[in-house]
Design a protein that fits this description.
- Chain A: Keywords: Membrane, Transmembrane, Transmembrane helix.
- Chain A: This is Tripartite tricarboxylate transporter permease.
- The structure holds two protein chains of two kinds.
- By secondary structure, chain A is mainly α.
- Chain A has one domain.
- Chain A is 74% helix and 1% strand.
- Chain A has 23 helices and two strands.
- The longest helix of chain A is centred in the first third of the chain and has 35 residues.
- Chain B has two domains: 58 residues; 115 residues, no CATH class.
- Chains A and B meet through helix 8, helix 9, helix 18, helix 19 and helix 20 of A and helix 1, helix 2, helix 4, helix 5 and helix 6 of B.
Chain lengths: 501, 198
């Protein structure tokens, strides 16, 4: 079978010493930032983007991916032991996980989180491998109009699923698209909105936006909040699960994997949404539902499996269609473009090393994480003893050097300052930064496809509804928007996100 | 009427941006729907943004209340003073000759001075002291080198958190200098001056 030959090729790429090393580094960094509250995968990946430029594209993406799914592992550790979610995606893990720790079953909770994540990661890896080439085939039949509608759908869903007001999120998406218009017009070469600044002719710096709005703004917001870190109470206890716990965890992991894989593919989905979805599901259907609130193992197993599955399946739209499903994937697009690779359906054929190597590395990375996490939990928890006052200057300095080294230009540093202040303002006004970043990445691509589609249709906008694929995409987008206008659907979402963080 | 202050400010931001951008966009040829010029897609995006801004504004009139934290007189005063001082310093630097006017230095000086003035007020310190330290890094990196840039910007940013001790900050500076040298200079070999250039 082709799949196996391809996977074998992938493993041969992923198992080279350099790629293994960077996969390992990615997983370590991912776990560390997962454990530490106050710095998330988006900030870290934008921080490390410049460091990866010296590496081949495959190595760079392998490492960045490792950070993303590594953070899902690390996040559960502090959630269980300290009732402190290291990442948004492990907020729900605190609900049951910490209760389990209070009952002295912390070890079992950690084990089930790690094993469940590993299982989910393995399944999701296979899913990415199997669906990749299939979806690519479909995507190759897409015309410009279909692409445009697909991107529009992606933007709408990412705005609809964002926290808070849908209108404001869509506003931020369009704001991102507008920022994407800055720079040289591809077809005529005319400078747009550059104010004669040569640095802007390539567009507003992508890394500056990401670092400013996620890195610098995050530091500032954390500094304003008083530090609240509890010390670990009680012992981890035996890492072994009892037979009964194991029996109850298995179906939860299976359900969590399914939920996570599906929600991960969805534009705007990803780890945080899926762990919450899985928790809601477990609370309704699992055998131990009467125990929820007192440390039910299903409430740890399901969400942890789900967030890891989702963090991997969210690569599917990126690798097959070139469309980022969430802010982390938008960063991956940025990384690929800077490496000179245009993400899209041709990537599987044109860059087999990257596609299959990344998939194989995900599985290897999951295996590494299992080893990194379980036996060394004590070490990771000690990381929390590092006070934030030492972390924030370090993050700041790394941001500054990284952004400067992009083009050896201090303009990028100042640009980052401006976006840092803007990001702070946005978070105070409850304007979401993630949809803006996705809009910024997709904007220029949308313009390309729009122009091409309209040229082919001789200026007839009906082409978007006449082509079946495009019509379906627009239809789904419309349904999603209308659904959010209905009060009870919106309330459901708000409640879900409020509880899920 | 339940005013949602946050939404109203957001709306003002979106509308303001859209209007300015639409005005700037008059420089670009629109073209036709069939052959779109450089101004066509921006026009669509900005009108959409304007429309969304108006919707946010209308919703913000009724879906509140969601007040923002009230700024004190000092906070407003120093914010304005910082903006004025920053612009003035930037303009003055651009008008002078030598290092201060070279390259992007006027922009950096403007940002730095502006942020420093505002961070006199304690509640603004996390935001503006970090921004000032970041600008300072950009300003002194090329003339004074990486080590001094790290040292000075870390020391400046340390004032944003009162729990810092002088000893801790010194240790942090040494640690970061060593780490950054190992990662960025030894390992990645980025092109940046390490020590002051004379």
């Amino acid at each position: 079978m082709d799949l196996f030959a391809n996977l074998a090729h992938g493993f041969s790429v992923a198992l080279t010493l350099n790629n293994l090393l960077f996969c390992f580094i990615g997983c370590i960094i991912g776990t560390a930032i997962g454990v530490l509250p106050g710095i998330g995968p988006v900030a870290t990946i934008s921080l490390l983007l410049p460091i990866t430029f010296g590496q081949p594209a495959t190595t760079a993406i392998i490492m960045l991916a490792g950070i993303y799914y590594g953070a899902q592992y690390g996040g559960s550790t502090t959630a269980i032991l300290l009732n402190l979610p290291g990442e948004v995606s492990s907020v729900v893990t605190t609900l049951e996980g910490y209760k389990m720790a209070r009952r002295g079953r912390a070890g079992a909770a950690l084990t089930v989180a790690a094993l469940g994540s590993f299982f989910a990661g393995s399944v999701a890896t296979i899913l990415v491998a199997a669906s990749g080439p299939l979806l690519t085939q479909v995507a190759l039949s897409f015309g410009p109009a279909d692409y445009f509608s697909l991107m529009l759908l992606g933007l709408v869903i990412s705005a609809v699923l964002a926290q808070g007001s849908v209108v404001k999120s869509i506003g931020m998406v369009v704001f991102g698209v507008s920022l994407g218009m800055v720079g040289t017009d591809v077809q005529t070469g005319q400078q747009r909105f550059t104010f004669g600044i040569p640095e802007l002719s390539d567009g507003v710096g992508f890394v500056s936006i990401a670092m400013g709005m996620f890195g610098i703004a995050e530091i500032i917001l954390n500094l304003e909040r008083p530090e609240a870190r509890s010390v670990m109470s009680g012992k981890v206890g035996s890492l072994m699960m009892t037979r009964e716990e194991f029996r109850r965890a298995v179906p939860a992991v299976l359900r969590g994997t399914t939920v996570g894989s599906l929600l991960g593919i969805l534009p705007g989905g990803g780890a945080a949404l899926s762990s919450f979805g899985s928790y809601m599901m477990e609370r309704k259907v699992s055998r131990g539902r009467h125990e929820f609130g007192n440390g039910a193992i299903e409430g740890v197993a399901g969400p942890e499996a789900a967030n890891n599955a989702a963090s991997q399946t969210s690569f599917i739209p990126l690798l097959t269609l070139g469309i980022p499903a969430n802010a982390v994937m938008a960063l991956m697009v940025g990384a690929l473009i800077i490496q000179g690779i245009q993400p899209g359906p041709r990537m599987v054929e044109a860059q087999p090393d990257l596609f299959w190597g990344l998939i194989a590395s995900m599985w290897i990375g999951n295996l590494m994480l299992l080893v990194i996490n379980l036996p060394m939990i004590g070490m990771w928890v000690k990381l929390l003893a590092v006070p934030y006052r030492y972390m924030y200057p370090s993050i700041m300095v790394f941001c500054a050097i990284g952004v400067y080294s992009l083009q050896n230009n201090v303009f990028d540093v100042y640009q980052t300052v401006v976006f840092g202040i803007f990001g702070y303002l946005c978070s105070k006004l409850r304007l979401e930064a993630a949809p803006m970043l996705i809009g910024f990445v997709l904007g220029p691509m949308m313009e390309e496809h729009l122009r091409r589609a309209m040229l082919l249709s001789r200026g007839d906008p009906m082409v978007f509804v006449e082509r079946p694929i495009s019509a379906v995409m627009l239809g789904i987008a419309a349904v999603a928007l209308i659904a959010m206008l209905m009060p009870n659907v919106r309330k459901g979402k708000d409640a879900a996100l409020a509880e899920g963080g | 009427m339940k005013l949602n202050t946050k939404d109203l400010i957001s709306a003002a931001l979106l509308i303001g941006f859209a209007v300015v951008a639409l005005w700037l966009n008059t420089d670009h040829t629109l073209g036709t729907a069939r052959r779109m010029g450089p101004g066509y897609m921006p026009m669509l995006a900005f009108w959409l943004l304007l429309g969304l801004g108006v919707i946010v504004l209308l919703l913000g009139l009724v879906n509140g209340p969601d007040p923002i934290e009230r700024w004190t007189g000092a906070e407003i005063g120093f914010l304005l003073a910082g903006a004025v001082a920053g612009v003035a310093a930037g303009m003055a630097a651009a008008g002078m000759s030598g290092w201060v006017a070279a390259g992007w230095n006027p922009l950096g000086i403007g940002l730095f001075v502006g942020c420093m003035v505002v961070s006199v007020v304690k509640s603004w310190r996390p935001l503006f002291l970090i921004s000032a330290a970041f600008s300072l890094f950009g300003l002194i990196l090329e003339p004074l080198g990486l080590m001094l840039a790290i040292g000075l910007s870390v020391i400046l940013s340390a004032f944003a958190d009162e729990t810092h001790t002088p000893k801790g900050v010194a240790g942090l500076v040494v640690f970061l200098c060593a780490l950054c040298w190992a990662v960025f200079i030894y390992e990645l070999d980025i092109r940046v001056p390490v020590w002051p250039q004379f």
